[in-house]
Amino acid sequence: MNSHVRSRFVVSVRKIDFFYLIGWFIFFAPPIFYRISGMVTSLLRYGGCAYIILLLLLNRKRSIYKIKPLFMKCFFAFFLWATAMVVIKSPNQIATFFYEQLMPVIGVFLLINSSVNDRHTNIEKKLEGLVSLYWLSIIYIVANFMTIILYPNGIFRSSVGSSVERANWLLGSKNNQSTYIILSVLIILLFMKKKIMNRFLQELLIIVGTVSIFSTGENRVEFMSGSSSGMIAISFLVVISIFLLLNKDIPFTNLKFKWIYLMILTVYFLIITGTTMPSIKAFIENVLHKSMTYNSRTLIWQQALHYIARRPFTGYGEIQIWLSVRLSSWLNGTTNIYNLILKQLFDFGMIGLLLFSASYITLPKYDDHKYHLVIIGIIAFFILGLMNEIDWNYLVVFPFLINKVFCSHNSYKPPTSAEEAIGNGYRE
């Protein structure tokens, strides 16, 4: 393909992309669908199983299951360990664990490996396979913002996933919004230089998504009342991404991710134990505008650490333990731990946390601005995880992209003959 044709390249939508769009929706369905009724939840769960079977059948002649990189093997080992702990420690939670955690991970893995064409040596062409996720990201940002405008007090109120009743919109309450928006904004950023949509509209979508996180409060739409960790995470993602898109050097993008991850763990330690440190206290009270209980989170963490000390190596599996929370003058409780690292430690012990950490520490390094964007997305989720739990499908989507888009970048060898190229469906 000559340079003239390459410069005029426009991403096209194929019929198969509509099939992929359905899959991305199933595995990243907004919370509102799970809270409509039990029947809708069952449809999404069984639909996810059926979709995975269809993906396996459609790709039965393709090799889409490779996990050669070390970090992918670590992820695989972590999921095996987690599954074993659930089976042994909390067998009555096996079905819930499969539908809510394991099935979305399997679905995301198969979707990425099926849609991203690693026969291309060009990274941008590989990303074309994610065009369905790109359009779903746009739909989520626009539709969610419309529900915020039309229903300023929330479409409904719910205490699901929280210790208090909160206003909910399409993408859930203020604590749910951030995960969807961060993923959607990052996908739009990856496509920023594509000729799918006017660049101004893409930038507008990012602004709209960011405003959504800042505006969705506990009870109604009120600017600067959203999730504090979510606001910091999306601000970090957008600001750093602007520098990357302007080809400005960002010092930490030259670091191997293992050093970034170790810095992240240090921040987690400071946040969890920071109630006794004046500098951390000032940051929490003056920047995050929270009390030194971090809205009762430190009380929850202290109780969680007490339980962790009883089973430090293996954890509790998916068992739910009621943790007391004092809100104003009354006592409530929650089964959420509100911290990504503590959650892994509580559920799967130190062995699970070591495998989980190894999955990120062993991430490879590539000198490519799109790779840097993906790393920024991972960091944003870890920032969000400081005071929230993050579902596995969000934690694996970017590493799985690294595996399929970047790790196979230098490993694929084009076919040596025209006959082989036609037989494999190769297109340059």
Written overview of the protein:
It is found in: Membrane. It is a multi-pass membrane protein. Pfam families: Wzy_C (PF04932). Its main location: membrane. It comes from Diplocloster agilis. By secondary structure, this protein is mainly α. It has one domain (12-270, 335-410). It is 61% helix and 4% strand. It has helices spanning 3-7, 15-27, 31-34, 38-58, 70-89, 94-115, 123-127, 131-150, 174-190, 199-215, 228-245, 257-273, 278-287, 297-308, 340-361, 369-384, 392-406, 418-423, and strands at residues 156-158, 166-168, 323-327, 330-334. The strands form 2 sheets. It has a two-stranded antiparallel sheet with strand order 1-2. Strands 3-4 form a two-stranded antiparallel sheet. Strand 3 and strand 4 form a beta hairpin. It is globular.
Entry keywords:
single chain; 428 residues; mainly alpha; two-stranded antiparallel ribbon; 18 helices; 4 strands; disordered N terminus; disordered C terminus; O-antigen_ligase-rel_domated; transmembrane helix; ligase activity
